[in-house]
């Protein structure tokens, strides 16, 4: 189980770093467009399309695995605050199972759309070129699948809370390094 936790953590870390790098790249791309417009009275063709069809898809979907791993999705805990711990754990398992079902359907729908759009060669037209945007469909699919992987690992340990999993992983890492 520790190996699955490590894999889940590595996947989550990879997704958040990829999304963070994409935010930086997006800022540089937009800034370059502003500089080109200001200095040369020209535009970087395709900037809006690349930002909206690629960068934003990555930033919106890819970090879901990290957010799930850390237990930081939006939640309303008003009812859970007054229930005993065992009831909280039961509700979390039920919520995670429902999330698994919904996300599995969502992943299936994204995959179906990605296959269809790839087959059609989905493009977006700019002033001077056509940009293939079907790869962004696969990026969204992979982001959802990454979250599903993290979620499955969490469901395999229903007695553990998100914080417990992270603490156990950190403790085992210290033990392996000889720190404790």
Can you walk me through this structure?
It is elongated and about 65 Å long. The model has no long low-confidence stretch (mean pLDDT 90). A two-stranded antiparallel sheet has the order 1-2. The chain is mostly helical. The chain has one domain. It has 6 helices and 2 strands.
Describe this protein with a few key phrases.
3% strand; two-stranded antiparallel ribbon; elongated; 75% helix; 180 residues
Note poorly predicted spans: none
Approximate shape: elongated
**Helix/strand order:** HHHHEEHH
Biggest sheet details: 2 strands, antiparallel
Give the fraction of residues assigned to helices.
over 70%
Structural class: mainly alpha
Q: Strand percentage, roughly?
A: under 5%
Average pLDDT metric:
90
Number of discrete helical segments:
6
Number of strands: 2
Distance between the termini: 20 Å
Radius of gyration: 21 Å
Total separate domains: 1
Order of strands across the main sheet: 1-2
Task: Summarize the SSE layout with pairings.
Elements: H1 2-40, H2 47-61, H3 64-70, H4 85-120, E1 123-125, E2 130-132, H5 134-155, H6 162-177
Antiparallel strand pairs: 1-2
Helix pairs in contact: 1-2, 1-3, 1-5, 1-6, 2-5, 3-5, 4-5
Give a summary of the structure in a few sentences.
With 180 residues, the protein is mainly α. It has helices at 2-40, 47-61, 64-70, 85-120, 134-155, 162-177, and strands at residues 123-125, 130-132.
């Amino acid at each position: 189980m520790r190996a699955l936790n490590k894999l889940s953590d590595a996947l989550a870390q990879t997704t958040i770093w990829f999304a963070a790098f994409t935010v930086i790249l997006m800022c540089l791309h937009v800034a370059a467009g502003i500089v080109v417009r200001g200095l040369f009275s020209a535009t970087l063709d395709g900037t809006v399309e690349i930002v909206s069809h690629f960068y934003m898809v990555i930033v919106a979907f890819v970090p879901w695995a990290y957010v799930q791993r850390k237990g930081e999705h939006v939640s309303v805990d008003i009812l859970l605050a007054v229930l005993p711990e065992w009831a909280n754990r039961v509700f979390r398992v039920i919520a995670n199972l429902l999330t698994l079902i919904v996300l599995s359907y969502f992943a299936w729908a994204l995959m179906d759309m990605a296959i269809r759009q790839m087959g059609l060669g989905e493009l977006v037209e700019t002033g001077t070129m056509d940009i293939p945007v079907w790869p962004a469909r696969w990026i969204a699919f992979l982001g959802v699948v990454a979250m599903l992987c993290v979620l499955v690992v969490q469901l395999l340990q229903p007695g553990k809370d998100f914080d417990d999993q992270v603490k156990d992983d950190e403790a085992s890492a210290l033990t392996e390094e000889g720190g404790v």
